[in-house]
Amino acid sequence: MDLILEILFALAEPAHLLALLTGVFLGLVIGVIPGLGGVFGLAILIPATYGLDPTTAIILLLAMVSVTTTSDTIPAVLMGIPGTVGSAATVLDGHALAKRNQAAQALGAAYSASMIGGLFGAILLAVSIPFLRPLVLFLNYGDLFAITVFGLSLVAMLSGNDPRKGILMVLFGALVAFTGLDPFEGVERWSFGEVYFWDGIPSTIVFLGLFGVSELADLLQRGRVADPVAKPDRNGLRLGIRATLANGGLVLRSGAMGSLLGAVPGIGVTVIEWIAYGSAARREKKGVPFGEGNIRGVIAPESANNAKEGGSLLPTIGFGIPGSTVMAMLMGAFILHGIVPGPEMIERHMPLLGMMIATIAIANIIATGVCLSLTGLLARIALVPATILVPPALIFLATGAFQANRMALDLVMLIAFGILGLVLKRLSWPRPAFALGFVLAPNLERFFFLSYQISGWAWLLQPVVVIMFSLVAVGLLRDIRQMSSDRITTPPPNRSEGVFLIFLLGAFLVCLLSTIGMPFASRAFPQIAAPLALLVGLFLLKNVRWSQTSDVSWFTSQRDLVFLAQLAALCLLLVLFGQIAAAVCFIAASAILRRDPSAKVVLGMIAFVAGTLFLMFGASPPIR
Q1: For 114-136, what is the mean pLDDT?
Q2: Is 80 exceeded by the pLDDT of residue 7?
Q3: pTM
Q4: Among residues 293, 299, 379, which one has the least CA distance to residue 103?
């Protein structure tokens, strides 16, 4: 009790309280801007903490990191753009609710679930400190492989009405994820001689293109996020909070999942949120389908991705083993200020450790309070015309993508994955399945070979592996039985899908042929994924109705082509003139071409976007 009072009094000191509030404010701002996230925030703040004492510096950094996954819900719900990679799953049902003028309900549920998840993670961190060593050492690579397989088994829940397309998209995502130097032999896979691809394609760019670009294109066609004729969501905030409390079991399950998986090094937030989302979808059999506006599809990933912050601190402070890039940077900040993470930290810096736990908890409460107070105002954004919303959103999206490597190829890849996301959306193919394959495939490959190198095939008999594989088998059998009982009939692919399938089959064949001559460790998983993708693709191609056209012919949609041309023009402006000049030119040109916003609106948009970019990035030069 004395320690708790000591921590609270220390946190109430003016310098510490100011650091906490500043960190929360910066974290909320960074989370709102698509593509930035905790890594960008730490990169900016760590140099600014050189003159601070260790306690104040750690409070500032930890408060910022803890709340970026709270405010990233705002662009995810309102515009369908993941604010960070941790909100990609929230887009599916959150944005679907916003389209029905229920944005306030989605935001209320997300904020309250995030707060409970963050508190759950902080409590788990506090309770787990005495058991830290056995908890972290208990799981080995074989167990992690089994957990990843469990995540992949959720693909049926993310495949819409046609599991075959879902399987094909998972395999496609896996092959894209294998791009770069393989982790065991250092052999290049599909890098085209570019050093840019050696570390793989940044997940931030993949998700911004896959979900953000396609949703903005769709928003322009609809005219605004929500239907103005739809019934206003007057009590949405209260209904959202009530939905979170009514689904307390889901919140606690997802929070526990986020905390426990967050404590395992190598399993990032993108994996955790999709596992939580898929697990919730598997349990839900009634009501609105997941992906079409089910509130549980917002609650599950939001509670999991906030709870993982507390869990990911466990191996970082206990053994000096960061579980993610954010934790690696945070550990560097600890060392910078003379605090070495590891067992000695628990013994020598217990008050500081307690203050870290309190910072996570209080930061989540403050961030939730701020976001809830703004929900009514934010929900009205759903009724703002798309011609006003899209240009600034597109600028922030492109700027966020550029922060991945600060290279022109970042923008090229954004356009490429934007085209892919738009095609998948127009053809109603499952983008979440692609995302699941992309985030899980590298872990699957790495954990398998490490398990085999350490213990041969004996790891298959480990208790956790047996339990997880059993759960996978039971879940798949239940899914198959459910599909059979529902007698789901899937229409055959149409002509547009047939053209897309031919493109995919060509890409899969090139991937397979390029692995010939590679070392075994480099080619094993690609040579499993590519043939399977070819088989599934050929099966779908065989059933194509070439005489049948789709409602939207993606390769002749004039509006989509115009939107992609606008995105390409924006990227070119960024390369030639830098971020602020490009933003001013793009907004002015958009207003002139559309002829609808007033001069005051245009000037306000320019001032807001240019001012925000200047505060976040400074007067940046043209991109190299």
Answers
A1: 72
A2: no
A3: 0.73
A4: 379
**Residue 465's pLDDT is what?**
87
> How many other CB atoms are found less than 10 A from the CB of residue 231?
9
Which residues, 6 or more positions from 266, have their beta carbon under 8 angstroms from its beta carbon? Answer: 144, 323, 443, 446, 447
Give Cα separations from 514 to 507, 522, 607 (angstroms). 11, 11, 50
Q: What's the chain's Rg over C-alpha atoms?
A: 24
506 falls in which pLDDT band (50, 70, 90)?
very high
Over residues 332-363, the pLDDT tens digits come to 788 777 777 766 666 676 777 778 888 888 88
Q: Supply φ then ψ for residue 180, to 5 degrees.
A: 115, -165
Cross-strand partners of 188:
181
DSSP designation for 549 = P
DSSP output for 368-433:
HHHHHHHHHHHHGGGGS-HHHHHHHHHHHHHHHHHTTTSSHHHHHHHHHHHHHHHHHHHTT--HHH
Query: How many Cα neighbours within 13 Å face the side chain of 586?
Result: 33
The residue whose two tokens read 């396609």 is 214
- Name the token pair of 36: 């930035």
Alpha-carbon distance of 380 to 368, in angstroms, equals 19
- Rounded Cα gap, residues 551 and 556, in angstroms: 12
CA distance 72 to 87: 6
What is the C-alpha separation between 391 and 277, in angstroms, rounded? 31
Q: Is the pLDDT of residue 173 over 50?
A: yes
Residue 181 is classified by DSSP as E
20-36 pLDDT tens trace: 888 888 888 887 777 66
Long-range contacts of 557-566 (CB under 8 A, 24+ apart): 557/426, 559/217, 559/220, 559/221, 560/217, 560/422, 560/426, 563/216, 563/217, 563/220, 564/217, 564/415, 564/418, 564/419, 564/422, 566/394, 566/590
Task: Give the SS3 label for residue 294.
Answer: coil
Interior angle at CA 595, CA 612 and CA 609, nearest 5: 0
Judged on CB neighbours under 10 Å (0-12, 13-18, 19+), 564 is middle
Query: Looking at the DSSP assignment, which residues form a beta bridge with residue 189?
Result: 180
58, pLDDT greater than 50: yes
What is the DSSP-derived secondary structure letter of residue 79? H
Q: Please tell me whether residue 595 adopts helix, strand or coil conformation.
A: coil
Cα–Cα dist 62/353, whole Å: 12
- Judge whether 209 and 415 are in contact, CB under 8 Å: yes
Nearest to 282 by CA among 193, 155, 192, 428: 155
